[in-house]
Sequence to fold (325 residues):
Amino acid sequence: MEFTHIAHVEKKVSRIGLGTWAIGGWMWGGTDEQIALNALLKGFDMGITLVDTAPVYGFGKSEELVGKAVKLFGKREQIVIATKVGLSWQNKTISRNSSRKRILQEIEDSLTRLQVDYIDLYQVHWPDLTTPFSETASALKELLDAGKIHAIGVSNFTPQQMDEFRKFAPLHANQPPFNLFEREAERTVLSYCLEHQIATLGYGSLCRGLLSGKIQKETHFQGDDVRKIDPKFQEPRFADYLTCVERLKNWAMKKHQRSLLSLAVRWSLDKGINTALWGVRKPEQLHDMNEVWGWKLSQSDFQEIDQILSDTIEAPVGAGFMSPP
Fold:
């Protein structure tokens, strides 16, 4: 395992974190609680110390499962719990709300669901342009000063938005979407965060399973699965992405004797992300994790990978489809 650091978090932060959107069930066709708990515990046993969740993931379900897993693991002092704030829901209709009132309500709800008395990293889930950043940032600084949170983060913020936020509170982390297929943050957010010593957590490292190499043309997604609205999983783009996946899979094995999945995570880490979030629902999905360690991608590797993407994906599309109103 490789480790990194988040300012104000006095724990070792693993460079792979457990992503828990899927275990909440909502937009993933449901969940099996016991299997989800087993997956989280396996991750902790393998040395992962950071787990990322949010109230909106299953409307509280994901946070509850994370809380149960940390209790079962029994080593709270080792686990970095990162959760979020600033989305409200009514009848499963999501909207942004980062008002002070909403934040002070959400922190208490999250502490209860997680069964903890502090949160290591508290992140604004999406920028709320209807609430002044001064109000949002000041509310989070109140929680920081009170010891209810140990570090302040944001997610999906641009450099300009981070600049405004930092006028009113310290900023310790930013969480953008980041993977081989969704790399808009590479030229802007990553360089900004590096310059200002802000840690980065990249979400969607496996691009909702597309970079696992296990999704086929015949794969069908059930219920409210988010991939039913992701443009990458719709034709004609889907065929292009599957072709690219196969090319990357063959390249990784021939060049480095590694799986596609380990290549995808290694790519994010070597591009400069502090921690790559690995979404898990089942323990077996972590089997390839140890293949991530002990090697690095060279500049020529990056160039060859870029060429594969350029050759196979005619109309690339980012993560913007997930943006809530």
